[in-house]
């Protein structure tokens, strides 16, 4: 998709960027409710065990999905997602 502000292609589309701060708060709340993923993230973030892994996913976007994606990225994966 073409970005309206330049001639470069972007790899994402955001419907309403003004909701980003609200979304970040929701993600923080969800992290508190997902101790398993947060423990994995904390334990392995320095080792980057998924470095070099390319992960693509297509799943309904929820706050919990965002936590999963951020965990995969923190563990070193190159993640592409659609929903």
Helix and strand arrangement:
Layout: H1 20-32, H2 35-44, E1 54-58, H3 63-74, E2 78-82
Parallel strand pairs: 1-2
Short account of what is shown:
The protein has helices at 20-32, 35-44, 63-74, and strands spanning 54-58, 78-82.
Jot down its keywords.
globular; 3 helices; two-stranded parallel ribbon; 83 residues; single chain; alpha+beta
* Cross-sheet strand order for the largest sheet: 1-2
Largest sheet: 2 strands, parallel
Round the mean pLDDT to the nearest integer and report it. Answer: 89
Helicity level, as a percent range?
Answer: 40-55%
Count of alpha and pi helical runs: 3
Overall structural class, as computed from helix and strand content, comes to alpha+beta
Percentage of residues in strands: 5-15%
Q: Radius of gyration in whole Å, from Cα?
A: 14 Å
Provide the domain count.
1
Word description of this protein:
This protein has helices at 20-32, 35-44, 63-74, and strands at 54-58, 78-82. It contains three helices and two strands. By secondary structure, it is an alpha+beta fold. Helix 1 (20-32) packs across helix 3 (63-74) and helix 2 (35-44) runs parallel beside helix 3. It is globular. The mean pLDDT is 89. Helix 3 links the parallel strand 1 and strand 2 (78-82). The longest helix has 13 residues, at 20-32. It has one domain (17-82). Strands 1-2 form a two-stranded parallel ribbon. It starts with 19 loop residues before the first helix and ends with a strand.
């Amino acid at each position: 998709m073409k970005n309206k502000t330049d001639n470069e292609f972007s790899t994402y589309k955001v419907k309403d960027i003004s909701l980003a701060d609200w979304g970040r708060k929701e993600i923080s709340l969800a992290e508190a409710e997902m101790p398993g993923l947060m423990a994995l993230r904390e334990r392995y973030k320095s080792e980057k065990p998924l470095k070099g892994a390319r992960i693509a996913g297509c799943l309904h976007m929820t706050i919990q999905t965002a936590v999963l994606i951020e965990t995969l990225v923190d563990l070193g994966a190159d993640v592409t997602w659609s929903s």
